[in-house]
């Protein structure tokens, strides 16, 4: 038994040394705790987690190389830093919130680097970077200090954090399903690292959060390491909120940035902080610029054909007359959130491009009109979810939707939850419509079903019978 334990520890040390030599893992200036923790069951289990799951992610990244390998090394480094922090926690008294923020700085530093990579628009590996950045929020379970800290319980936090990352890993799976199996392998391995990997580890050893040492030393801030010069500056990274000393304050006092912050607020239950609040002066009935009075002072100059200028429409996110949420002309905004809604209200999204909208709670109906590359995540719909005149949109139902209609649309990905599998889907004048449903179990991949766009009409018994075209391959 002792021989096997020594062999396993030697292998773990060799692996970490190899990764450190390759630039994948660093101590981030963490001090040597001076106590041998190698025989601690939770530390041994963490090494097993790295051996069983992290090695698969690293192996897939090695096959891809380049930027995917770089971001994977940062993921492994974050896990390595968390392991060192768990060791330190066993020898340290529980700090106050300010002390906890300082204590967790080394982990936050790695997450900031991944977040900076995820903000690089236009990269062909954007979805990989976002998957990595969103998934690392799961490591924030270590900041759980009790039911009043504003976070979900550690196991639930890991599961909910992965749901945010899965939005982007699904895109990787769809994009590279035929193009390159190595990317598919990477996405699947990344999911396994968190579910069941990290989730089961937390469930077995820290279901109620980290256990501090009441008789240990006082927490001290670890020396910080400045990001490399090549890393873009991130003055207010989204993930920093995980370890903020103000996490116990009401969420309305904490402005959030980025999609990761939106998902974090969804997962923690503090969903109102991400919303662009609608004040009284923003409501239609109180808008002074829409009084309906026609000005008689002066005439509006005519525009000549030679000076034609494209009209830039004003972005809008507001509640009109207490009944209709209008989301219009949003370009490149990934953190649009509506949470102050009810089942009597509708949501109308018009003219938006390259943006993501989160709709919290139940609404009457949702309509997407003339949108391009728009993503919508919603929970429950009373009447219907409609897509009209759109291009390349994605929608994910996390609750129940009785009816989904797609009209005059080119390219739509619909992700259904288990509760919405009975939804009635109607399509008209639309192409490239794919519906993805959950697999047989939580570890299975999404199953994609392309909806038919060609039909055969046959006249039989005095009427036409219509059936979809069936293609069979050799």
From TrEMBL:
Comp. bias (Pro residues): 225-238
Domain of life: Eukaryota
Pfam families the UniProt entry points to: CAP_C, CAP_N, CAP_N-CM
Annotated SMART domains: CARP
UniProt biased composition (Basic and acidic residues): 277-290
Segments of skewed composition (Polar residues): 293-308
Domain C-CAP/cofactor C-like: 314-451
Chain segments carrying region Disordered: 216-258, 273-308
Name the record gives this protein: Adenylyl cyclase-associated protein
Organism: Hibiscus sabdariffa
